[in-house]
Model the fold of this input.
Amino acid sequence: MRIAFAALMLAMTAGAGAQLSANDPPASFMVFFDWGKGEVRSDDAAALDKVAEAYRANPSMHLRLSGHSDRSGSAACNRRTALSRAETIRAELEKRGIPRNAMSVVSFGEEQPLVATEDGVREVQNRRVVIELGE
Done:
């Protein structure tokens, strides 16, 4: 299944029953990647722009960029690929004015899939970078 608009926004709440107002930015964003590719797709620009807007509204926030991959390669290769994609997102956010020291990068490789698959399976939802906004 291909996701037409690759930047899914997930609102996360601080506790049970907590509500976000319409003016609150989402607490995380996801950017997905085509198989074998590390460049940001054109349809992800809007999500990255929203991350930059949220940062400008609260420049004390910290962003955690978590790279993930599918299970189509070796575990070591998938960790490297996921890290490279997270670093690509960091570079794109730097271009949008977010300082490098406001972001941390981590790679989970194939360890935390959104969609469980067998080894060797290509799954677009698992090839992602999660951008978490926090204090």
The chain is about 25% helix and 20% strand.
